[in-house]
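[#protein-structures] MJ: dropping Plant heme peroxidase family profile domain-containing protein here for a structure pass
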Amino acid sequence: MMTSLKITSAASRLLPSATAATTTATAKLSLSSSSASHSFKLLRSSPLISHLFLSQKRAADASRFLRNGCSSYSTVTKCFASDPEQLKSAREDIKEILRTKFCHPILVRLGWHDAGTYNKNIKDWLQRGGANGSLRYEVELKHAANAGLVNALQLIQPIKDKYSGVTYADLFQLASATAVEEAGGPKIPMKYGRVDVSGPHQCPEEGRLPDAGPPSPAAHLRDVFYRMGLNDKEIVALSGAHTLGRSRPERSGWGKPETKYTKDGPGAPGGQSWTVQWLKFDNSYFKDIKERRDAELLVLPTDAVLFEDASFKEYAEKYAADQGAFFKDYAEAHAKLSNLGARFDPPEGFSIDEGSAQPQPEKFDAAKYSTGKRELSEAMKQKIRLEYEGFGGSPD
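AK: finished. structure tokens for Plant heme peroxidase family profile domain-containing protein:
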């Protein structure tokens, strides 16, 4: 399903340690001690929050400011997980890679597989999986379902090196959404600000991603996607992304070594595609599976079941007949998948598209802070917690 690249010893350099990530971040931003001290004193003077600050400012406090995408409002410095301007520039670099490497399918898969480990039944962020950048670590890349994804990491690592103010979690999802859009697919309503996990010990265990040929395809798809909090409509819509790419038997065990549609590329030749134009995002996947007139095209058990299971078939038939309906439902499902398990900073995330609503600080209302008046809103509580942490205070 992806452009094949030669894996060299350079791959080992693409598996950063938490130490390396910290070193990069530390070099990124220098803060004025007088500015930090001024903001700290202003916050300490507040009767609402002064009791929540630590009595002494720890040496590590300044590292809280080393997040990217800093903006200032009121007297408080606010930093996002990723720098919005760097994300915009990274998107342009991704578009250039797509134009020259024809790697749309593997970048879609990269974002999916980072997010698709999410388990809604696990509350702890470090255990539940999801879109948190853990797929950059070797232990997770070696999972059988991720075969070949080291090639995707090789493609985008130079972009990560160039834009150190972008998290891996955001970069993976940015690459995935951009690949869909550049292939002719719908605009994905993405938001950013995902926080990265810090080490390979935080990677999910193997076995959370779907298989291609399980004994009971419908039950298997529901087991995997229901665990993520997705429904039948979203399962079918997301399956439609197989309109892009090829399956390579040396990686997945499925598909032919090559077909008349893949033997000449573009990109590295070979593999078996689901559709004739396997770099074009449209509703051909549903049409071709329904008709099954071309033996050169791939149909996996988890593809065929979309027209066999009664609930799945309702949506598959709809998408085969109406590309607009497919695009609408796919865009919503892709955006939902890309947010699974993510921790956002700011908590509501932010958009990098012109005209999209951007997160704004909650307006100050004195009544909310007066004794006997209204309780603080949840948004304001979360905002204050993040500001405490920025100065080394307890989030609680």
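MJ: nice. The longest strand covers residues 70-73.
AK: one more thing. The two ends are 46 Å apart (CA to CA).
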